[in-house]
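Technical annex, item 7. During the second reporting period the consortium partners agreed on a shared format for inverse folding records so that results from different sites could be compared directly. Each record opens with the tokenized structure and is followed by the designed sequence. A conforming record, contributed by the partner at site C, is shown below for reference.
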């Protein structure tokens, strides 16, 4: 995963390449957040 400090200029303004580098980590983060949110919801609804 590229460091957060690497912006579009690091990829010489190649938006497609920059997004390809950025997207996997964002998808992993989103999945973890969804999982965590579901666990919190289940715990508050069902006492798990």
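Designed sequence (site C submission):
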């Amino acid at each position: 995963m590229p460091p957060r400090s690497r912006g579009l200029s690091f990829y010489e303004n190649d938006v497609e390449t920059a997004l390809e580098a950025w997207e996997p980590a964002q998808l992993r983060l989103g999945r973890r957040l969804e999982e965590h949110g579901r666990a919190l919801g289940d715990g508050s609804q069902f006492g798990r």
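The mean pLDDT is 88. The longest helix spans residues 15-46. All partners now use this format for quarterly exchanges.
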